[in-house]
Amino acid sequence: MVTKEFTPVLSRIFGSRARTKLVAVLVERRGAWLTAAELCDLADVSQSGFHRDHKSVLLDFGVVEQRETGAETGTQASPKYRLADTEQAEYVTKLHYALQSQLEDSGALLEGNVREFVE
């Protein structure tokens, strides 16, 4: 599923289209650890924007978790991110797949008309 299809609806929930795309990538790759570069490339979001505007919000909300890599060997490496194993992340995953299953049948959802979609 292309993450841009979820942008109109979920950006209202997450507060930005970029944050929505980041979360969608993490849901679709649940369990995989991604560097910021990998995550941002897949989501088509700038790394500077990720670090400046989105990372702390997603970490604080408990949707994303961060792992410092290289700590075991004492080397410096980039941190990696994945969808957290939290209740919030589980709700996001359920919402993602519920929207995915309804997406093809709802012009209202594609147009970002959340009220019409809910009714």
TrEMBL record:
Gene3D superfamilies: Winged helix-like DNA-binding domain superfamily/Winged helix DNA-binding domain (1.10.10.10). It comes from the Archaea. InterPro entries: WH-like_DNA-bd_sf (IPR036388). This is ArsR family transcriptional regulator. It comes from Halorussus caseinilyticus.
